[in-house]
Amino acid sequence: MDNNPLPTPVSPPDAPDENSTAPAAGSVPAIAEARGNEVRRESVWAPLREIFVGPEGLYPAARWLIYIAMCFFVFGVLSSVLHAVSPVRGGMWSSFTRELVMMLSAILPGFALAPVEGRRFGDFGLPTRGVFGRNFWAGALWGIGALTVLMLVLRAAGAFTFGSLDLHGARIVKFGFFYLVFFLMTGLFEDFLMRGYSQWVLTRAMNFWPAAAFLSIIFGALHTSNAGETKVGLVAVVFIGFFFCLTLRRTGTLWWAVGFHMAWDWGESFLYSVPDSGTLVQGHLLNSSFQGPDWLTGGSVGPEGSYLIFGLMAGLWVLFSWLYPEVKYGVGEIPVTK
Description:
Number of strands: 4
Distance between the termini: 67 Å
Strand order of the largest sheet: 1-2
Helix content: 55-70%
Shape: globular
Low-confidence stretches: none
Number of helices: 11
Structural class: mainly alpha
Largest sheet: 2 strands, antiparallel
Radius of gyration: 30 Å
Strand content: under 5%
Mean pLDDT: 86
């Protein structure tokens, strides 16, 4: 005998309300409405997606813009902290701390983006194994040597005189070391900002040399805010930036360029005591002076504004290409597993 109860009859689905205007779920009108909403949402974001996102994710240019935005953000945060800790501004130490903030603002976003890119931070041009290594000191020797050649040519032409000492005793060591550290930070800031992550990511969008040309032009444009700059000086900065890109490509790191940059700026500002991109610093070594036309001396810009700088950079390019013939940039990069 079957003890199971009789099955409960299943009620038919409720008929749609004749007075309702909403289509029933699963009906053809409902599906059409859902697709219409999806199309409308797509139409809002489609232009931005086409600009910034490709089949493999964010385009390199979009990632570069994110990096620049991160630099501004870090700079704003660190500047606010610095102002809160030490609201008094002005003087050499204020310039020193500001240079430190700018250096950190360029480098810290690189550390943050390295794991996102699946790379090591060193792949962006500043490997830890090269800190104050052979490339750094070779670049420093080239920097001070190239500047010395230029200053001696100006001296031979009667356009520059060394003058007398402006500092004596321990103050020479004090100010000399101060500006050595100061311009090391300058080199790290400017070279990593323009030729570190920026060069690495934009190389993936437009290859190395187009990216180098683009960033070198921006590098020159950043110097327009310097007091005393001229058009010749700005063009020279572009050429110098482009030369630094060559050193990056041939050495595989930024350390050579950082060493050159530090030594060149230190030689201009402290050792030879002349304007550096339009700026004459306090606590320089000599009471030196220029005589002659601006096209020769550089005028308010300093040696970087002299027409001779273009011949010097051309010579450096040829000599460096001869001594460093092998391309090493990007060679041996090992992606890190995300």
